[in-house]
């Protein structure tokens, strides 16, 4: 595949997979949206996936198998990850996945149909519980990366970079708890996002900046053990702040 910049790569991925999605699902297709790093400007080639949300009237195993077969080359070449939901699944799961759905609401690029996420009602209590669960889960993920990669620095760095992509929507979810959108903290500028975390959650986020430098400029040299130690400490402080907070809708 010819080398392209991230924006061109994403457009090529859409051009490759969208006609196949339309053909496979036909009249059953209700909506297609681009979400995640490919929609927010934080996409990193060879690290990020191209995430596609597909909403259908009714789920069909035959259609999913057909997409897997007809779209195989594009799915692999462009690291496209389709997320397929029926309309009923979407409407009844916003209390289970409030962080993910709120992030998609705020950042999704609509590719086909009409947005079906705008009408979803997402409660702040559900967001708080999931945010705290996710923060604790990411701390455990860091520990697993250390255990699995042993002393192989190359694999260690690769896994940390992959892990880092999940933190961006999580940080935005934390700031929504603090109603920080009005202060410009819904910005897609990732360094601005980190600054907002420091201002609203009152935690030191210096290790997050180092992690972001590493993600965006992969030739940056950092002492990985120190970075992981600092990240773990700062995550724990964020969990404590959210656990002690009172959040209203």
Could you name the ranges where pLDDT drops below 50 across 5 or more consecutive residues? none
Mean pLDDT figure = 87
What strand order characterises the main sheet? 3-2-1-4
Major β-sheet, in short?
4 strands, mixed
User: Could you tell me the radius of gyration in angstroms?
Assistant: 19 Å
- The domain tally reads 2
Elements, N to C (H/E): HEHEHHEHHEHHHHHH
Strand content: 5-15%
Distance from N terminus to C terminus (CA atoms, Å) equals: 48 Å
Identify the quaternary structure here: single chain
Class from helix and strand fractions:
alpha+beta
Approximate shape: globular
Number of strands: 4
Number of helical elements = 12
Task: Give the proportion of residues in helices.
Answer: 55-70%
Question: How would you summarize the topology of this molecule?
Answer:
Blueprint: H1 6-25, E1 29-35, H2 37-40, E2 50-56, H3 61-70, H4 72-77, E3 80-86, H5 87-92, H6 98-107, E4 109-113, H7 124-149, H8 153-164, H9 167-177, H10 190-201, H11 206-216, H12 224-244
Parallel strand pairs: 2-3
Antiparallel strand pairs: 1-2, 1-4
Descriptive report:
The protein has 249 residues and is an alpha+beta fold. It has 2 domains: 6-113, Beta Polymerase, domain 2, CATH 3.30.460; 124-244. The protein is 60% helix and 10% strand. The chain has a 4-stranded mixed β-sheet. Helix 1 (6-25) packs across helix 3 (61-70), helix 6 (98-107) packs across helix 9 and helix 7 (124-149) packs antiparallel against helix 12.
């Amino acid at each position: 595949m010819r080398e392209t910049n991230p924006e061109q790569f994403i457009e090529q991925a859409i051009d490759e997979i969208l006609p196949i999605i339309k053909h496979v699902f036909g009249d059953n297709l209700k909506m297609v949206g681009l979400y995640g790093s490919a929609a927010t400007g934080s996409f990193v080639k060879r690290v990020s996936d191209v995430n596609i949300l597909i909403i259908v009237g009714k789920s069909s195993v035959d259609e999913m198998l057909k997409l897997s077969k007809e779209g195989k080359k594009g799915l692999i070449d462009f690291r496209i990850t389709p997320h397929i939901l029926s309309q009923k699944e979407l409407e009844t799961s916003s209390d289970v996945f409030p962080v993910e759905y709120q992030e998609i609401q705020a950042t999704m690029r609509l590719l086909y149909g009409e947005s079906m996420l705008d009408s979803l009602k997402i409660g702040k209590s559900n967001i708080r519980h999931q945010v705290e669960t996710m923060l604790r889960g990411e701390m455990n993920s860091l520990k697993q990366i250390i255990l699995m990669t042993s002393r192989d620095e190359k694999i260690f760095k690769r896994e940390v970079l992959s892990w880092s992509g999940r933190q961006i929507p999580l940080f935005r979810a934390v700031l929504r708890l603090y109603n920080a959108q009005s202060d410009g903290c819904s910005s897609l500028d990732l360094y601005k996002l980190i600054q907002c975390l420091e201002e609203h959650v009152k935690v030191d986020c210096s290790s997050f900046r180092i992690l972001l430098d590493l993600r965006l400029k992969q030739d940056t040299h950092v002492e990985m053990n120190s970075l992981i130690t600092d990240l773990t400490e700062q995550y724990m402080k964020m969990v404590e702040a959210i656990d002690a907070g009172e959040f209203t809708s």
